[in-house]
Design a protein that fits this description.
The complex is a heterodimer of chains A (608) and B (582). Helix content of chain A is 65%, strand content 10%. Chain A has 608 residues and is α/β, with parallel strands linked by helices. In chain A, the strands form 3 sheets. A 6-stranded mixed β-sheet of chain A has the order 6-9-10-3-11-12, with helices on both faces. Chain B starts with a helix and ends with a helix. Classes of the chains: A alpha/beta (608), B alpha/beta (582). Chains A and B meet through helix 3, helix 4, helix 6, helix 8 and helix 9 of A and helix 3, helix 4, helix 6, helix 8 and helix 9 of B.
Chain lengths: 608, 582
């Protein structure tokens, strides 16, 4: 279990509690009503034993049937009122709990949409999900039953004590004598159970992840004849889980009988002591019976309160984690001023840009280049040369440490980041598809993109052909991450997605994954159409893409080393041509036709 | 369903029959002892009424305490034994389930979703446990309490018993009805909660796309819709569940009131003594909880039975691919493969993926298969270790039909590198040594070197001891592939099957790996699938598959010279590679 799953030291933190209670503020009317109801309910609950006493002492012993009838009627009314109040209180507080959960989840989710991407690099998805789901649920319990319930328990407890004291003070003292025992047993039990539950959680998680992994890799297990060994391992994990559970079975088996035994001690004491009083000091049998009933009611609020203490502890830990997330500063890029609209041209300038994800590990060093409106520029370089980072910076996913990036002459920091991104069409290397239809993946929920617009875009990039062949066309549901589509198809969808927005600036990160030759041709043609007449920056892996661009920027170890057309760069005899030669020589042999076509392309580019 | 219990569940119960018998006996004892308590009260009250000595009163008090002590002791035994047994049964069932899952063919895992199987192994299993543990315990408990206390109550006053028991069936019914409704709504809510989780997960995974397309507000809107729906369903549930406990309190209050009222009248009429009346109300109070529990128990049994049926369904899934009766484990394996007029269709599919495929791979040689997506290349490989079963008499190892070979033996002599590299959350070293028992460190190092992974391993935080997977680091696709290659190399099997296992590495690394593997492949029979010509050009024989048929076969040079499909593929790829900029 990771450390953040464990409860933090303090069970109660005033500052945290203040902030938590702040969420109740919009619903304070409901909360106050619920508190009043719960108090009244607790007090009404006290009437039962008293009515029993009255019925025994005045009704039954005096053979007074009308009085007994009367008491029965009152008793029924008390029960009905208790039922009504209990229901009402529960409804109100559960409603409030649900509303607060909704408020909190939306607040968290909205905040997540505003956090800088760098934050997501550091925080694994699983942990963030726990914040939004489980931690919020824990708080719900605090709001729905904890806050108001405490009042009910306290009043029930006080009420029982007062009622007992009024009946007979000495008997109260006798009943009270077992209280320390109850407290001690309950506390010991809680501590043991908490430790044991934590143990169970860890073991269950291990069990489930082992099972999950083995289901996922079953064919590997089978092929490697690992069945027996894995079964042994599973048996061990399973036994650990069982034994941890047997611990709690044992604690439960001890706790409940012990609590009953303490109750019996109290009862014995009351019978013994109270009986003597009945004989010699004239308390009535009714009082004794009522007292026994009160004693039984005395234990419930105590165990409820100790349970609520547990809820509070967990809620504090969850609140701490939730607030830590909410207190993470939002992306500064979201500020930006919104200037009067002028036509977007798509001029991009990188001006001595330095960037590192961490400390001084520069990924980009002093990068400068510009892209004029309507120009098509390819960025090439080996893996790890910083190409993708360049795009992340331009999209303002990260901000450079030094230097400036300008779009249309305006520094990125001055742009409203949404406006900027609305002008840019992006197809990222790793195409991400959401579960939903093809259409919803193309529109991403933008209502201004009609079906016609989407279809035109899909046609333009050759995505329409395969979409039309899907069982339900563009209404076909894409499964998790587009698992049902091929890499090539996903790439085409990404193109259509970018094109549908008719962006003023196009950014493409070409996928490296190999696709079959037919799809490859489609992709190449789609790329050409996409870039036509549009300011484009493309991270290119294929020469066929490079053929279509006006200029090539060669990135090497985070620096711009060469700029020019394919032909110019080859003549330059620098990195580009060396990389190229290497490839070429490696394939020297029977590749006559290939050489020709490359030569041709080079000339075309050089002359353009 | 009772039949299913008898044939399938009882064997599990029988395994723990001694403890179970102890536990059930404890239930009877604890209740007999506990139910004598009102009798003591009765005597005490009647004594009080007629005058009593302090010593007699003290004896009553001591007796009450003694009863509580003994019944508590047996209650402890009851919980520990019966609930404990349910944990043991859960353990047994889970082990059997896991063992069974390991025997199921790949086909099963392709059709059933992992989440679905997981849910059976967790939720359904725990429903069954609740049934054989607390369910069984409270069922027996209720019956024992009911029989004994009813006996005592009838002895006190049959009329009173009949009248005061009127609302009790109502209690059971209420619990049963509410329990069922609540459960169904709750399951619906759980499903929606899963939807919310999935949404968050997807949003986080696709955060770059969301940002790049400025779709944050749309995402928030969608999230709000899901959450509002979730809250609404919860409130629906609350409307029902909110009435549950107050209703129970009300009904048990009514029962107490009836006893008080009717019993009071009986006392007044002189039919029963005051002591008998007090004892009666206490009995009624004692019946209260078991009757409530009964409704709950009915739910437990309903859910448990449904869940058990689902488990049995999974356990009955036939492990279709097993060692056939009379299968053999030859003393040695040369590794010669032969495919004889192999036509294959996936179970449930409507067309053949392989048609009339025949070829031989003499021991120690390499055959490569190329072809487009869906040509059936991977299927050929999958049939050798019987991931899917080939028709009888079509696939042979050393001249024997693979189906007549012992499955363990067969797979033990094959090193298979699948298309999708699968790593377990263990260290890199353990992953490489996954297919052999106790691989020495230098053997792991050697295999890593051949797979060209040694250099990568050195850059990892803890070298070969670095954890990968869920709780460790994530390796790149190419690194994963090389780990699985090393895994297969380490197995030192005479047959090596490489299923397009170099797709995620660049050409230079591919060259390096192939170079490293060359030595290994020389001593082994190798069947390699690739769609890169560079990976297959040195094979002794190259097969071109198209639409499930072999359309060309020969060496690289012969096929290039033949100017057919393969030659075209080779030309295309050469062109492509020259154009490729690293």
């Amino acid at each position: 279990m990771s450390h953040d799953e464990e409860l933090h030291g303090k069970a109660y933190d005033h500052r945290l509690m203040q902030r938590l209670l702040g969420y109740l503020r919009p619903y304070r009317g409901e909360v106050i009503a619920a508190i009043v109801i719960v108090i009244v309910d607790a007090l009404v609950g006290l009437a039962g034993p008293y009515l029993t006493k009255q019925a025994i002492d005045h009704g039954i012993r005096n053979r007074n049937l009308p009085f007994l009838n009367q008491m029965a009627m009152v008793y029924v009314s008390v029960l009905l009122v208790g039922f009504g109040l209990g229901y009402l209180q529960y409804q109100i507080m559960q409603r409030v709990g649900q509303r607060i959960m909704l408020d909190l989840r939306l607040q968290l989710f909205t905040h997540l949409q505003r956090l800088p991407l760098a934050w997501f690099d550091r925080n694994p998805v699983g942990r963030v999900m726990t914040r939004v789901t489980n931690d919020v649920d824990v708080l719900n319990e605090l709001f729905a039953s904890g806050v108001v319930g405490v009042f009910g328990d306290v009043f029930a407890l006080v009420g029982v004590i007062v009622a007992m004291a009024k009946l007979n003070f000495e008997l109260l003292a006798v009943a009270f004598s077992v209280l320390p025992l109850i407290v001690i047993v309950t506390l010991v039990f809680r501590v043991k159970m908490r430790r044991s539950f934590r143990d169970i959680r860890t073991r269950l998680a291990r069990l489930n992840s082992f099972l999950n992994e083995n289901l996922g890799g079953m064919s590997t297990v089978q092929l490697l004849n690992r069945e027996r060994r894995n079964h042994e391992e599973f048996r061990g994990i399973n036994a650990g889980h069982r034994d941890a559970n047997l611990d709690t079975v044992f604690y439960n088996a001890v706790f409940f009988p012990v609590m009953e035994l303490i109750g019996a001690v109290a009862l014995s004491l009351i019978v013994w002591y109270g009986g003597r009083q009945v004989m010699w000091e004239g308390i009535t049998l009714g009082i004794l019976v009522a007292f026994i009933q009160y004693t039984q009611r005395f234990f419930r609020p105590i165990s409820d309160l100790s349970e609520k203490y547990g809820i509070l502890q967990q809620a504090m830990a969850s609140a701490e984690r939730i607030f830590a997330l909410l207190d993470t500063p939002a992306d500064t890029a979201l500020g930006g001023s919104r200037e009067a609209e002028s036509a977007f041209e798509g001029r991009v300038e990188f001006d001595h840009v330095w960037f590192a994800y961490e400390g001084e590990h520069w990924v980009l060093e002093d990068v400068s280049f510009s892209v004029a409106p309507g120009e098509k520029v390819a960025i090439v370089g080996a893996t790890g040369s910083g190409k993708t980072t360049l795009i992340s910076l331009l999209l303002r996913f990260y901000a450079p440490q030094r230097g400036e990036i300008r779009v249309d002459g305006r520094p990125l920091a001055d742009w409203d980041v949404h406006e900027l991104r609305n002008h840019i069409g992006v197809a990222l290397q790793d195409v991400f598809l959401f579960s939903g239809t093809i259409t919803s993946n193309l529109s991403l929920g933008d209502p201004s993109l009609t079906d016609e617009v989407l279809e035109t875009a899909a046609r333009e990039v050759h995505a329409h052909e395969f979409i039309a062949e899907l069982p339900e066309g563009s209404r076909t549901v894409v499964l998790e991450r587009g698992a049902t589509l091929s890499a090539g198809q996903r790439q085409l969808l990404a193109f259509a997605r970018a094109l549908a927005r008719n962006p003023g600036l196009l950014i493409l990160d070409e996928a490296t994954s190999s696709v079959d030759t037919h799809t490859e041709l489609l992709i190449q043609d789609a790329l050409r159409r996409l870039m036509e007449g549009r300011t484009s920056i493309v991270i290119a892996h294929r020469l066929s893409t490079i053929q279509h661009v006006d200029r090539i920027v060669v990135l090497h170890h985070g620096r711009v080393r060469e700029t020019g057309t394919h032909g110019e760069l080859l003549r330059l005899g620098g990195i580009y041509s060396r990389l190229y030669e290497l490839q070429y020589l490696g394939q020297a042999g029977d590749s006559g036709s290939g050489r020709d076509s490359v030569g041709q392309n080079a000339t075309i580019n050089a002359s353009s | 369903m009772p039949g299913l219990f008898r044939t399938r569940l009882f064997p599990y119960l029988a395994r723990h029959r001694r403890r179970l018998a102890w536990g059930l006996a404890a239930i009877v004892v604890t209740n007999i002892v506990a139910l004598s308590q009102p009798q003591v009260l009765r005597v005490a009250v009647d004594d009080l009424y007629h005058g009593v000595t302090a010593a007699k009163l003290g004896r009553s008090a001591l007796l009450l305490f003694g009863i509580a002590l003994v019944s508590g002791l047996f209650k402890f035994l009851m919980r520990r034994e019966v609930v404990g047994v349910s944990r043991h049964i859960e353990y047994d069932l889970r082990n059997d389930l896991f063992g069974h899952l390991q025997k199921l063919p790949l086909e099963h895992f392709q059709h059933a979703r992992t989440g679905e199987i997981m849910s059976r192994a967790t939720n359904d299993l725990s429903a069954v446990r609740m049934m054989v543990g607390p369910g069984l315990m409270y069922l027996v408990n209720t019956v024992v309490v009911a029989v004994i206390s009813l006996g005592f109550m009838i002895a006190i006053s049959p009329r009173l018993t009949a009248l005061s028991l009127l609302p009790l069936p109502l209690v059971t019914l209420t619990v049963w009805y509410f329990g069922d409704t609540i459960h169904r709504r709750f399951e619906d809510i759980q499903a929606r909660f899963a939807g919310i989780s999935a949404r968050v997960q997807e949003n986080l995974a696709g955060i770059r796309v969301v940002r790049a397309f400025a779709r944050e507000d749309h995402e928030i809107d969608q999230f709000r819709v899901l959450n509002e729906d979730y809250a609404r369903r919860n409130l629906d549930l609350i409307r029902v569940s909110g009435a549950f406990y107050p209703a129970l309190a009300f009904l048990s209050g009514v029962a107490a009131l009836l006893a008080l009222y009717l019993g009071g009248r009986e006392v007044m009429a002189g039919h029963i003594t005051l002591g008998a009346f007090v004892a009666f109300t206490v009995y009624l109070g004692m019946l209260n909880w078991p009757v409530v529990a009964l409704g709950w128990v009915v739910n437990l049994f309903q859910r448990g039975a449904a869940s058990f049926a689902r488990l049995v369904e999974l356990l009955d899934e036939a492990p279709r691919i097993v060692s056939e009766p009379g299968s053999v484990s030859p003393a040695r394996c040369a590794g010669a493969l032969e495919f004889r007029r192999l036509t294959f269709r996936y179970p449930g599919a409507d067309r053949d993926v392989l048609r009339d495929v025949s070829f031989e791979v003499p021991a120690g040689t390499t055959v490569a298969i190329v072809g487009g997506t869906g040509a059936g290349k991977s299927t050929v490989l999958a049939l050798v270790p019987r991931l899917f079963d080939p028709p009888p008499g079509t696939v042979f190892l050393d001249g024997r039909d693979v189906r007549t070979l012992d499955l363990q033996w067969l797979r033990g002599h094959i090193g298979y590198v699948p298309q999708d590299a699968f790593l377990f959350s263990a260290t890199v070293g353990e992953n490489i040594g996954y297919g052999v028992e106790h691989a020495p460190a230098d053997a792991i190092l050697g295999a890593a070197r051949i797979a060209h992974f040694e250099g990568d391993a050195r850059t990892l935080p803890a070298g070969f001891d670095t954890l990968v997977g869920e709780r460790g680091i994530t390796l790149s696709g190419g690194q994963k592939q090389r780990v699985t290659i090393a895994r297969a190399v380490l197995r030192d099997a005479p047959v090596l099957l490489l299923d397009d296992c170099l797709s995620s590495v660049d050409t230079q690394t591919e060259d390096a790996i192939l170079h490293g593997l060359r030595g290994v492949m020389r001593e082994r029979t190798t069947l390699i699938v690739s769609h890169r010509v560079s990976a297959v050009r040195d094979a002794d024989q190259i097969l071109v598959l198209d639409g499930g048929r072999i359309v060309e076969r020969g060496t690289h040079d012969a096929l290039v010279a033949a100017r057919g499909r393969y030659a075209r593929l080779a030309r295309e790829q050469q062109l492509e590679q020259e154009l490729e900029v690293p």
